[in-house]
Amino acid sequence: MTAERAAESTTTPRTLAEELRGRSDAQLTRLLTARPDIASPPPADMTQVGSRAATGASVSWALDRLDTAHLAVLHTIGTMAPPSALQQVRDSSPLAADYVAAAVRNLRDLALVWGPDDALHVVREAREMARATASAAWVGHGVRETPPAPTASDVDTGRVDQTCAGTVLELVQRAEQLLESWSTAPPTVLRSGGVGVREIRTTAVLLGVDTADTEFLIDLVGAAGLLGRTDDGAVWLPTAAYDRWRDGTIAERWTRLATAWADSPGRVIRRQTLRVLDHLRPAAFADESDVVAAVAWQTPRLGAGERDALVSRTLTEATSLGVVALDALTSAGAAIATGTDPTSVLEGLLPRPVDHVLLQADLTAIAPGPLEHSVARQLGEIAALESRGGAAVYRFTADSVRRGLDLGWPADQVHDFLAQHSRTPIPQPLTYLVDDVARRHGRLRVGDAGGYLRTDDPAELDALLVDAGLSGLLLHRVAPTVALSELPADLVIARLRAGGHNPVPERTGGALEVERPRRRRAPSTPVVDRRRPDVDAIVAAVRAGDSAARSRPTDAGDSAPMGRTGSMHTVAALRDAAEAESSVWLSYLDQAGSLTERVVDPVRVDAGWLTAYDHRSGRKQSFAIHRVTRVAGADESPVRSTGSDEPARLPR
After folding, report:
1. Is 340 in the same domain as 233?
2. CA 349 to CA 323: how far, in whole Å?
C-alpha cells in the first residue's frame, strides 16, 4: 500500500464513496481532521465514511464552520444543475476566479463537493441547505473574500502579560477559596439544578466580587470538573479532582480552567473570537463591534443575535480569565486560541511561589509572591485574607487567632510557625495578641450532659446565669464553676457564640475537642476529552476495511450458508495460510454478535486460537476460532509485524 494515491481516479467517480477511495492518505487525513465526527467511532470502510459525510447532521456541522465566502461558492454550485464545471462556477460567482478555484478545493477536501473540476457535485444535504438560503447574507454581489479587519490600537505587550499574570493569580486564588468554602458549607442544589441567589450573594461577599463574577466562577469550576453534585443530588461539593488540581502549580491550575472555558458550550464562537484577536496580535482591538463583525463573517450560519451576544460575553469572560488583557490577546491566551498548552508560557510570566511572609507592626503579613499551598493554607487558619494578587495581605485579629486555636493550634505552635515563615522580626503587638487570646481561650467549656458548661472563673458563670439573652439555655448551677443545660452541647455552643461569648467544646476527661471542619467531596464528573483521535491509524483501518470488502467471496452475502463454526476445514485453511505466509479474509463474530470482516496474515493456530497480523488494527491479535464463521483467500500481500509484542486477544 503506498502512502500517497492519485487524487483523482482515471475514470469519473459515480458516488462520493468512490471518489473518496481515490484520494490519497494525506487527503483523507485532512478530511477526518476537519470533520472529526466522521471518524468517531472509527468507520469500517470507505462506504461508511461517505455515508457519514453525507448525513444531515454532519453536513450541518461542517457548514456551520464555513465562512461567508465559502458558503457563497457552495451556494453557487448548489443552485446549478449537477454536474457543474469549475468554469461555470467562476463565471456565476461574484468572487475572483482564483479565489473560487481555491474555495472549491477546500470544499472538496471537506467532502461537501466531490468530483473532478469538469463534473462537480454537491452532497445532497448541502445542496438542499444551499437552496433553502436564497436570501442569506452570503448570496449576492456584496460578498467579501476576506473578513472585515478590526481597527487595531497599539499596546505595550509587556503590560499586557503583566496584567495577565495578576489576573491569573487572583482567579486561581478565588477558585480555590470558593471550593474550600463549599467543601465545609455546601449550598443546596435547586430543583432547576443551579445555585440559589442567597448562596451566590454570600459567596460573592466572601470572595470580594460582584454576583456576576461569582456566577461566572461557579460555572468555570463546574466546567473544569472541580464542582459537582453529591450522589443524592442534594448539595454542590468539590469533586475528588479538586484535590489533585489544588496540588498543581498556578499555571497548571489556570490551564485547566481556561481550557474548560474555551471548550464549554458555544466553543465554536468562543474559539473563533480568540482567533480574530490572535490575528491582531500584538495590537489590541479598538472597537468591540469590529470583533463582532469579523466573527459574523467567519460564522454566518449561526444565529446573529445569540452569536453577537456570545462574542461580547466571550470578550468579557476572557478578560476575567486573563486570556485578554488591555483589549489584547495575552501570550497565554494565544496558546489557548491555537490549541497549544499555555502552561510553559504562563510559568515564565508568574512569580515563583514563596514560603515566607513579611510581618508588619500593624498586625498584617505581606506575602511577597504567591505562597506555597501548604503555607497559604496554614496561614489562612490563623489570619484573615485581606487582599489577593501577587502580594497577598493577611491580617491577624483576635477572631482569626481564636479560629486557629479552635482548630487545634497551641499558642507555641503559632509562635513557631510565624518565626519559621517570617523574614522580618515578629512584632511585639502580634506576640501579645496571640498570648492574650490563648490565655482566655478555653476558659469557658461545654460538654454533653444534655450539656454542661464549665469555666475557670466563677464570676464569668455568674454573668452568664443572669444574662436574659441566655435564658433559653435553661442553665442550672451545680458547682461554683459548673452549670448544666437541658440542651445538647452543640446548641449551647451556638447560642453562647451568638451572645458574644467564646466557648470551646470539651471531651470527656476535660480535654479540648478540636473543631476541624469536615471537607466533603462529590463524585468526580467526567471532563470532555477534546483530544483528536489518531487519524493516521483510522485511515489505515479504513483502507484495510476496503481491502476486506474486495476480498469478500462472491457467495458471502447475508443469505449465503456459512461453514461450520470452528470446523476442521476452518482450522486447516488457517494453518495452510500460516505456512504459506499468505493473507486470508475472515468473517468474524464479535462479542456483541455482529459480523465483522477482516484481512489477516495468520501466524499460528493453537489451542482454539488464531494468532494473526490484523491489517485493520495494524498489530498482532488473537481470534477465537469458534467465532470465525468463514475463511477465504485474500489478494493482499502479507505484511508481517517484526515486533515481539504479545498479541492482543479478542473476546471469546
Report:
1. yes
2. 13
Q: How many domains does the chain have?
A: 5
Instruction: Return the H-helix or E-strand segment holding 227.
Output: strand 227-229
Contact 177, 208 (CB under 8 A): no
**Grid coordinates belonging to 646:** 504479545
pTM over 0.70: yes
Which one, of 107, 106, 75, lies nearest residue 92 by Cα?
75
Which of 214, 210, 212, 224 has the alpha carbon at shortest distance from 177?
Answer: 214
Task: Let me know: does 621 contact 601? Beta carbons within 8 Å.
Answer: no
Q: What percent of the chain has pLDDT over 90?
A: 47
The owner of cell 445538647 is 488
Q: Which CA distances in Å does 150 have to 273, 274, 348?
A: 12, 13, 30
Distance CA 22, CA 292 (A): 41
User: Quick check: 399 and 383 in contact, CB under 8 A?
Assistant: no
Q: Which of 219, 216, 214 lies closest to 200 in space, CA to CA?
A: 214
Query: What does the pLDDT look like over 112-142, one tens digit per residue?
Result: 999 999 999 999 888 887 777 655 555 655 6
Widest Cα–Cα separation across the chain: 108
Q: Give the DSSP letter string of 398-459.
A: HHHHHHHHHTT--HHHHHHHHHHHBSSPPPHHHHHHHHHHHHHTTSEEEETTTEEEEES-HH
Q: Do residues 342 and 363 both lie within one domain?
A: no
Helix axes 304-321, 211-223, angle to 10 degrees: 90
Q: How far apart are the first and last CA of the chain?
A: 31
Q: Cell numbers of 332, please?
A: 497565554
Give me the residues of the chain with pLDDT under 50, please.
1-9, 557-566, 636-652
Q: Are strands 393-395 and 444-447 parallel, antiparallel or unpaired?
A: unpaired
Residues 198 and 230 in one domain: yes
DSSP string, 550-619: HHS-TT-STTSPPPPTT-HHHHHHHHHHHHHT--EEEEEE-TTS-EEEEEEEEEEEETTEEEEEETTTTE
CA angle, 156 as apex, 153 and 161 as ends, to 5°? Answer: 115
Which residues are paired to 482 by β-bridges? Answer: 454, 479
Q: Cell 497549544, residue?
A: 340
Sign of CA dihedral 534, 539, 542, 548: negative
465, 467, 454: which is closest to 493 by C-alpha? 454
Instruction: Clarify whether residues 313 and 388 are in a common domain.
Output: no
Which among 110, 104, 65 has a CA at the least distance from the CA of 87?
104
Is there a single domain that holds both residue 246 and residue 294?
yes
